[in-house]
Design brief:
Elements (H helix, E strand, L loop, with lengths): L2 E6 L6 H11 L3 E7 L1 H7 L7 H9 L4 E7 L5 H7 L3 E5 L8 H12 L4 E5 L5 H15 L1 H4 L2 H8 L3 E5 L3 H9 L1 E4 L2 E4 L2 E4 L1 H7 L10 H14 L4 E4 L6 H14 L3 E5 L1 E2 L14 E2 L2 H13 L7 E6 L8 H13 L4 E4 L7 H13 L5 E3 L9 H6 L4 E4 L2 H20 L12 H7 L4
Parallel strand pairs: 1-2, 1-4, 2-3, 4-5, 6-9, 6-17, 9-10, 10-11, 11-14, 14-15, 15-16, 16-17
Antiparallel strand pairs: 7-8, 12-13
Helix pairs in contact: 9-11, 12-13, 13-14, 14-15
Amino acid sequence: MPVVYAAFGTDVIHEGHLNILQHAREYGTVIVGALSDKALIRYSRFPTVSQEERVKLYESLEGVSRVVVQDDYLYDEVIATLKPDYVVHGDNWQNGPERAIRDNIEALLATYGGTLIEVPYTRSEQARKVDRQLREKLAMPEYRRRRLRQLLAISPTVKVIEAHDGLTGLIAEKTVVDHNGRLDQFDGMWVSSLCDSTERGKPDIELVDMSARLRTIDDIMEVTTKPIILDGDTGGLTEHFVYNVRTLERMGVSAVIIEDKTGLKKNSLFGTEVKQTQAPIEDFCAKISAGKKVQLTDDFMIIARIESLILERGMEDALTRAFAFKDAGADGIMIHSRKKDPAEIYEFCDRFREKDSVTPIVVVPTSFNSATEEELASHGINIVIYANQLIRAAFPAMQETARGILKAHRALEVDEQLLPFKDIIRLIDEL
């Protein structure tokens, strides 16, 4: 009897999935692929139930002969192993980045005469309701908060981009590209004090208070599901920091990064051009320890940001601080540099990894932006944060549009520079 293969990544079965299975049974013996956690987060979204639970769910479906785990969203391995006569899938992947997966399957099937069957996508109210419920579940604090740790356990590199409002949060959430035949997307969002301040037209000196920062986080959380890392500046007074840790943890933020400086905050990229004071090691360790003690879960992460290279204090100082902060309870180490050459970043990471192969290392490659994620990962870097590119891209675009309107005394001349209004509407989910 012909072998029919259909892959699922859903946590909840709705009529659309049942419709695919019904079509699949018409062609032969049905094998269902359960996308692994690793495959699912690269392809679509984070699961809300375990891989084992998904396998059991699919095994319980009528007409399924067996379930196999598909460890990649591309089908190369599973098709090479099973050689199915038919692969059945919804027709909702004929356009956009997912087209790369479809093309991959067609090419694989063509090597031995297999056939791709595409079933009309089910756009029912029940299917929309299930999708909406899954998104809402993913946005809940207890699910979102733990997601960064889960990503670190699964992905060699966690890539994060800044978001400073709901709209940029949606861009971070929904942007997916086809890169050399594979889908790629951001894993999380960075809520930066620089971008938060700039968006409000204020200097980056911790002038925007935590209440305002929390409102930004809330706006982003309302329309997204991916994990959030907060730029916590210096963390402020230890007595205040412990309360902020509790608040962030309760909201569902995954991590806060605090820098080992004291006094009036100045942006790190000024380096030694402005007066910046590094906190004594013992004081910063005490702040980290105090923050860890008040946590109610193991999910939330406090990451220590080291400014030694920025302030030209040397590699030994940076490493001494890194190991001290880790011993004080830091869940990760962020090393920063304003040099375009990443050599000192690589040296730090290589030397840190000689003694510690586990603690996550975070970098923000704003200055050393020629370094690829693959190169950074080869030096043991786990999290790459693109910290300010969206707001820096937005400002010149908006300024150019404003100039164009002033010059022409109308908006026609700038129309080609603008996103069609319908595209903005499509970006925003309706309840």
